[in-house]
């Protein structure tokens, strides 16, 4: 991002002088783009003391200075005329492995100079691995340069984050190889192999689920069930929430009934604050059964539910001593998933209750 900011300010990208043109910064969805690259870019311009010289067209998510434009957009709508008609001098795909190849192809055909892709080499293999790394990188003109970096190349990474990454050696060898060695690993232990991102949610049977936390996030989700599809919307995902905060949030959005983990004291106190809350139905193998029920559906998550999207994409089974997947889930990146399980625990047992 700093290189893009320097180009906007000076016209130089590395040693090359490009006095005018357009640099496009692209991500899968607009909410994730606003919360990450766009926000970071504005902060960089302010830190470099050039933001106030730039024409910032906020409604268009564009910044212009001396015939150089940086524009931000998402690829949610592949049929959009805007996407098909985008002309750019350079473009940057953030989290490129979440973006369909069709979108990349539309963009690269209209790119004058070069593009930059970033991604973690994990998950289900896609075009970043098969087309870029395995195929195009070896074309005779050698127009692809692969730069592999890990947390070891970042001198500013917090100590606690280093501990978490190095601790993956004991819990998830595949992910350890991604973060510590930069290897492409096709995760064999993902709980949810495919989720869909959506902009709209149809009408259906509605359930609310709540997963309690404090240092860990407290998460509330709205789950809409439509035949064999479930649509998930993140209501809140926050740490350090007190019971009064939870009650105020639920009252404010008009939740009529919510299902939660069976924490007797917490549920009683929320009931005392006027919340209709029921403990999720549990029993033998409730986690396995609940996840199995979710997986019998097509899963759609609203594009603004950023943390929930991330957790569903990263939720994994433990590996055994031979590095093979078990049927036991890792107790990590599971707050939203648990909230969805609680919301659907009655639907699972046939006692469907709607608000």
Record the SSE blueprint.
Elements (H helix, E strand, L loop, with lengths): L1 H9 L1 E2 L2 E2 L3 E7 L2 H18 L7 E3 L4 E4 L2 E7 L6 H4 L3 E6 L7 H8 L2 E7 L4 E2 L3 H7 L25 H13 L1 H9 L3 E2 L9 E3 L6 E7 L6 E9 L2 E10 L4 H11 L4 E3 L3 H9 L4 E3 L6 H10 L2 E5 L3 H9 L2 E3 L5 E5 L5 H9 L1 H4 L7
Parallel strand pairs: 3-6, 3-7, 7-8, 9-10, 11-17, 12-15, 14-17, 15-16
Antiparallel strand pairs: 1-2, 4-5, 5-6, 12-13, 13-14, 18-19
Description:
With 355 residues, this protein is an alpha/beta fold. Helix content is 34%, strand content 25%. It is built from 13 helices and 19 strands. The strands form five sheets. The protein has a seven-stranded mixed sheet with strand order 11-17-14-13-12-15-16. Strands 4-5-6-3-7-8 form a six-stranded mixed sheet, sandwiched between helices. Strands 1-2 form a two-stranded antiparallel ribbon. Helix 6 crosses helix 7 (173-181) and helix 10 (286-295) packs across helix 12 (335-343). The chain is globular and about 65 Å long. The two termini are 45 Å apart. The relative contact order is 0.11.
What attributes does this structure have?
25% strand; 7-stranded mixed sheet; Nucleotidyltransferase, domain 5; 3 domains; 6-stranded mixed sheet; Rossmann fold; alpha/beta
Low-pLDDT residue intervals, each spanning 5 or more residues: 350-355
For the terminal residues, how far apart are their CA atoms?
45 Å
Q: Which strands sit side by side, in order, in the main sheet?
A: 11-17-14-13-12-15-16
Largest sheet properties? 7 strands, mixed
- Our count of domains comes out at 3
Helical stretch tally: 13
What percentage of residues falls in helices of 4 or more residues?
25-40%
Structural class: alpha/beta
Q: What is the CATH topology of the largest domain?
A: Nucleotidyltransferase, domain 5
CATH class of the largest domain: Alpha Beta
